[in-house]
User: Which sequence fits this backbone?
């Protein structure tokens, strides 16, 4: 019985050798996965990255290469760095809110008769609004591109 | 006067044409920058990504490609996705701490004679400890690789 070629060998129109570096991580039922990493890194660069790793780490490396390639295709300017900028900004917002809340507790401890109004919900932990114009917070850029 | 070749053309041992796609973003005084993106993406893939963009976005794209390439060289398994996992985990921790603090304010408002002890500093917004064994928080993996 001839085993089916992996997605990479199918894409590259070649025979799939028994020791194919791609076959375990790019199965034939998901051709888009290889097409995606091929478009951004090229087959030989993906092979090089996988080959330099011990076999137990290759699946995770293939997953993260695919993840980064998807985001670079979706957003050719920022790629994954757009997500990093977003998360960094959200973390900064959460920290500011936390500091503010801790200051309110300190105030309440010193003034037990006072009442503090609930904090306005101006902080939102929503990971889905990865909008291009929000990627480039200046503080983020200074931190990550230095 | 012959203008100096850009870092890419020097690396590729070729003449630097006047309309070189790399020259503005890979200056000759920073050869490492091109060597880095070349190692991960290859020259032709970097050129393709830059060429598809309007010229005012290319510098930012070159910066983010360099950033991602650096992290992939530093950490061939996780690359930039390691940073994303870290930030995601830190954000989750900050949110938990914020929720806890808000609950304490609500408690103080209902029990004005009570005193709440300052929150222990078990949350630390330190971006420098990007350690490999902290990359793979299960909740992060579920969210980002689905």
Assistant:
């Amino acid at each position: 019985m001839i085993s089916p070629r992996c997605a990479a060998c199918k894409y590259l129109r070649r025979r799939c050798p028994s020791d194919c570096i791609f076959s375990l991580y790019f199965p034939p039922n998901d051709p888009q996965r290889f097409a995606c990493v091929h478009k951004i890194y090229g087959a030989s660069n993906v092979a090089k990255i996988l080959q330099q790793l011990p076999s137990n780490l290759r699946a995770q490396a293939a997953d993260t290469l695919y993840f980064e390639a998807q985001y670079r295709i979706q957003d050719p300017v920022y790629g994954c760095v757009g997500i990093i900028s977003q998360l960094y900004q959200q973390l900064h917002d959460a920290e500011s809110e936390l500091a503010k809340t801790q200051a309110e507790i300190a105030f309440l401890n010193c003034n037990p008769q006072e009442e503090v109004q609930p904090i306005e919900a101006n902080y939102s932990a929503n990971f889905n609004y990865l909008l291009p114009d929000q990627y480039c917070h200046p503080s983020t850029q200074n931190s990550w591109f230095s």
Q: What stands out?
A: Residues 77-109 of chain A form one domain. The CA atoms of residues 82 and 133 of chain A lie 10 Å apart.
